[in-house]
């Protein structure tokens, strides 16, 4: 199968495969896999579907054309499932486990069983033409999903059909990437299970909440970073670790008593003091830092209830291990680490728009009024502006990770 590839291309693929093993977060990994597969085949767009409960669920989308449009990012948060059968190209490839090249998705002809669903194109005003779909196979011939690469481009940016050697490169690459994808998926599942243990005790906070907080946080960060001229490579590296670190902001609640977590109604001052300890307890879990990832998780766990105007908690903490901790004067403004300021906003937006043991969910307009009203008080004003400027993306995330 390698025969159609030049030595250089193979070397490049192997080099990337090696890089992939270093990426921890499943979304960053899918992002990288798709980007490289598209780069090798000069394609405008692509998606990765992973097999979940015997269906193909769309897990990752890229689209350069839509990204050039002002409101493009929201289309990346699609949420659809395709059956493994011969009715769609992706389903057919999952069924047959063989790559498929299509010159024009809008003229498939009557000779093939599958059709093309134009509904995404119609909402996004996109035209899918050439499509290359490959199975993602892990070890022991297990199918883990499919990768679909869309609209190969020539030098002038015109859509052209994929070539035979694109199929070889993308399929070869898909096979090498599948193992890393499987590993990252397991890491994500283990983390979700850890969070799940905490949630067993705080039943109003669902997995959907942490998924949303993670996704809001990386999108707020990305726009903030683009506004501040942070290089794209760095943005990607941060996204990789920020999502998981943000998802873990409340792990310290595992050590808080059930009576408090499940209390219906307001906490008295002594109880609230106990509750505030969750930020210290969370930071303790990551204190023996072995990686950037632990550092970020510790920083977020400790500081996600600080407020821009200094009225938050826990304030300056010399030693998270000390037992006699008392809240001090809050950190203020940029004393609060950026990532904690971001998670503070994501977390409160989500807490207000959800139901909790102690509160009903607020209407969306009331939540937005609150956030605007707390600009420069509870929240970093710059981040509130960023949040409002990507509000369409925030809503798309909210729909994608609705309560389950
Ligand atoms: P949480 O439920 O995840 O809430 C996160 C943060 O969202 C809160 O941090 C607060 O900043 C904001 N928030 C949530 N609900 C409201 C609200 O109704 N009004 C306003 N203005 N802000 C709200 P906070 O206050 O530091 O609380 C941390 C955690 O302590 C909460 O996490 C929750 O687990 C617990 N908690 C706080 N207040 C109460 C309460 O009155 N009763 C109970 N049972 N638990 C509470
Ligand atoms: C879809 O976008 O719904 C599926 C495309 C395909 O036919 O594979
Ligand atoms: C950082 O990346 O945490 C520094 C940027 C800031 O805190 O404003
Ligand atoms: Fe918290
Ligand atoms: Fe939370």
- What is the correct CATH architecture of the largest domain? Orthogonal Bundle
Helical proportion?
Answer: 40-55%
Radius of gyration (Å): 23 Å
Tell me, briefly, the overall form.
elongated
The end-to-end distance, rounded to whole angstroms, is 43 Å
CATH fold title of the largest domain: Hypothetical protein af1432
Strand content: 5-15%
Total count of helical runs of at least 4 residues? 16
> How many strand segments?
7
Biggest beta sheet summary: 7 strands, antiparallel
Structure commentary:
By secondary structure, the chain is of the alpha+beta class. The protein folds into two domains: 7-179, Beta-Lactamase (2-Layer Sandwich), CATH 3.30.450.40; 202-400, Hypothetical protein af1432 (Orthogonal Bundle), CATH 1.10.3210.10. Helix content is 49%, strand content 12%. The protein is built from 16 helices and seven strands. The chain has helices at 7-20, 26-41, 64-67, 89-96, 119-124, 164-200, 207-227, 232-247, 258-261, 269-276, 278-285, 292-303, 338-352, 364-373, 381-389, 391-400, and strands at residues 43-52, 55-63, 81-83, 100-102, 131-138, 142-153, 159-160. Strands 1, 2, 3, 4, 5, 6 and 7 form a seven-stranded antiparallel sheet that branches. A hairpin with a 3-residue loop joins strand 5 and strand 6 (142-153). Helix 2 (26-41) runs antiparallel to helix 8, helix 7 (207-227) runs antiparallel to helix 16 (391-400) and helix 12 (292-303) packs across helix 13 (338-352). The longest helix has 37 residues, at 164-200. The protein is elongated, with a radius of gyration of 23 Å. Residues 1-5 have low confidence and may be disordered. Ligand C2E is lined by residues 263, 266-267, 275, 305, 347-348, 351-352, 356-359.
